């Protein structure tokens, strides 16, 4: 008994030491999802990507606004000119030297007034690209949050399985000792002792496997959250889900981020097709310029000019380039239309599958709970009958193994039900950090009596044989 208390104390100490400065309070799923949403590098990268894509909107508008530029120059000119005097009716030639400092400045502007609607379609295309990038960010957020949910409940499940196996090892040690004592007094045979030793050896192997799985789950948790798990809330209430599969499908058709992405990308490629077709039209712009020159040449002391007008450009022949680009843009848009149909079908199948997984997992929880209760009562009965000599050591060992299997099955079913519920929310586009807070009152009430903090299981040291 003292050794068991020491193991529990060691487990609590290790659990608190896994996260530096960890609080003694349980970490809720909402807390974990909030940390992931704020700090996960994958989500941060997608946010920066959205910020970069959003600049396309300003760039598209820039093409429709006036384009104004200014130029200036200052030059030093040392010039020698030899002039034939015959042009003045005189003999010989005349050499002159000029030292000039020409200064020039100019401002020019152009305002497109018709581009074949190219700028209009470019602005619409940029808007679609920004919306597609925003939907991709939402998809990335929900994927990472869904992975964090799975990692959270993987740790909870593996903790429960580890604790169950650790307790089973302790029970089998006691069983082995009791069998040895009964053998020494001639109450049982050597076979009973060997059976107890065999089960104990198998239980130790299962414990080692459970420890390895728990280590892997904790590592995955740290990858997503950025810190090792401390004391986790083991059985939070299920999140609120749509009332029916039809309601889930209707919500997904409007809000599933992967559906929004392909629809906006189809709009963007359609606008690109319009842009390519606009290259067949002439472009018309208003132009204006002002130029000032001082000492522009040896004959001009000052020059000032203001010009304005209209410029029109008409495409005539480019070797079939415009036609080829138009065909290319049309083919890409047809591809995106097919992607919309394919994605709608994928989302529909994903929602249907997730809905069935939720139903199956919740049904399995009820069956596993019934198994645990029945096996617990059966184990007590078998132990009592064994004390009276009506049951063998093997019967007790089998009852203990069945109880352990039922306990593990219940932990797995709870994990699967939670993960399936959040996967359904992710499939329809409704998973957020607040999803863990939207459990119904009935779900919260049913879980109230069962909620207890799960402690990270310590490494159970083998007692001297």
SSE layout:
Layout: H1 2-17, H2 29-39, H3 41-62, E1 67-74, E2 77-84, E3 93-100, E4 103-114, H4 118-184, H5 190-225, H6 245-255, H7 257-278, E5 283-294, E6 302-313, H8 321-387, H9 393-428, H10 441-448
Antiparallel strand pairs: 1-4, 2-3, 4-5, 5-6
Task: Please characterize this protein's 3D structure.
- The chain has 465 residues and is of the alpha+beta class.
- It folds into 2 domains: 2-63 and 127-280 and 321-448, Outer membrane efflux proteins (OEP) (Up-down Bundle); 68-114 and 285-313.
- Helices cover 64% and strands 13% of the residues.
- The protein contains 10 helices and 6 strands, in the order H-H-H-E-E-E-E-H-H-H-H-E-E-H-H-H.
- Strands 1-4-5-6 form a 4-stranded antiparallel beta sheet, with no helix packed on it. Strands 2-3 form a two-stranded antiparallel sheet.
- A hairpin with a 7-residue loop joins strand 5 (283-294) and strand 6.
- Helix 4 (118-184) packs antiparallel against helix 7, helix 7 (257-278) runs antiparallel to helix 8 (321-387) and helix 8 (321-387) packs antiparallel against helix 9.
- The longest helix is centred in the first third of the chain and has 67 residues, at 118-184.
- The radius of gyration is 39 Å and the shape is elongated.
- The protein starts with a helix and ends in a 17-residue tail after the last helix.
- Mean pLDDT is 82; it is low at 1-25 and 440-465.
């Amino acid at each position: 008994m003292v050794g068991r208390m020491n193991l529990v104390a060691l487990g609590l100490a290790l659990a608190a030491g896994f996260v530096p400065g960890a609080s003694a309070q349980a970490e809720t799923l909402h807390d974990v999802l909030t940390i992931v949403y704020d700090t996960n590098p994958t989500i941060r990268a997608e946010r920066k990507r959205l910020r970069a894509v959003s600049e396309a909107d300003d760039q598209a508008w820039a093409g429709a606004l006036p384009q104004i530029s200014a130029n200036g120059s200052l030059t030093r000119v040392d010039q020698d000119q030899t002039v034939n005097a015959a042009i003045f009716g005189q003999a010989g030639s005349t050499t002159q030297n000029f030292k000039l400092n020409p200064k020039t400045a100019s401002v020019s502007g152009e305002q497109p007034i018709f581009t074949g609607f190219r700028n209009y379609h470019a602005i619409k295309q940029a808007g679609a690209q920004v919306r597609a990038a925003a939907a991709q960010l939402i998809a990335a957020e929900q994927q990472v949050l869904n992975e964090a949910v799975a990692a959270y409940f993987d740790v909870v499940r593996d903790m429960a399985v580890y604790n169950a196996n650790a307790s089973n090892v302790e029970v089998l040690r006691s069983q082995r000792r009791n069998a040895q004592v009964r053998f020494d007094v001639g109450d049982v045979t050597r076979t009973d002792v060997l059976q107890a030793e065999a089960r104990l050896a198998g239980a130790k192997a299962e414990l080692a496997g459970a420890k390895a799985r728990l280590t892997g789950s904790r590592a995955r948790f740290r990858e997503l959250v950025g810190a090792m798990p401390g004391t986790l809330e083991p059985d939070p209430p299920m999140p609120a889900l749509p009332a029916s599969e039809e309601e889930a499908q209707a919500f997904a058709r409007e809000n599933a981020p992967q559906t929004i992405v392909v629809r906006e990308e189809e709009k963007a490629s359609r606008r690109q097709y319009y842009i390519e077709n606009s290259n067949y039209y002439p472009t018309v712009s208003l132009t204006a310029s002002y130029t000032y020159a001082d000492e522009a040449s040896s004959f001009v002391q000052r020059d000032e000019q203001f010009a304005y007008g209209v410029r029109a450009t008409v495409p005539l022949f480019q070797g079939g380039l415009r036609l080829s680009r138009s065909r290319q843009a049309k083919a890409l848009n047809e591809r995106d239309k097919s992607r919309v149909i394919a994605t709608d079908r994928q989302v529909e199948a994903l929602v249907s599958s997730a809905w069935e997984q939720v139903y199956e997992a919740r049904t399995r929880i009820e069956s596993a709970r019934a198994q645990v209760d029945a096996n617990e009562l059966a184990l007590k009965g078998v132990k009592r009958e064994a004390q009276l000599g009506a049951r063998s050591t093997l019967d007790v060992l089998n009852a203990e193994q069945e109880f352990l299997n039922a306990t593990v099955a219940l932990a797995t079913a709870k994990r699967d039900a939670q993960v399936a519920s959040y996967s359904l929310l992710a499939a329809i586009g409704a998973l957020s950090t607040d999803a863990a807070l939207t459990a119904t009152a009935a779900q919260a009430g049913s879980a109230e009596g069962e909620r207890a903090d799960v402690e990270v299981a310590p490494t159970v040291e083998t007692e001297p044989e």
